[in-house]
Sequence to fold (48 residues):
Amino acid sequence: MSDSADYTFVCPECAESMLVNDSMRDALLENGCVICSAALTTDAFSTT
Ligand SMILES: [Zn+2]
Fold:
């Protein structure tokens, strides 16, 4: 197992999508979308 992407993130506001790992997911949930700063919930992430 590598430390690569574990989740697919899709922003509900700007539709930005990216693959993220667990720590990146936590950061996004805490800080919001990196593109549009929308507040995010776990609904924005799906496991791959
Ligand atoms: Zn966004």
About this structure: Residues 11, 13-14, 16, 33, 35-36, 38 surround zinc ion (CB under 6 Å). The first helix runs from residue 22 to 31. The CA atoms of residues 8 and 37 lie 18 Å apart.
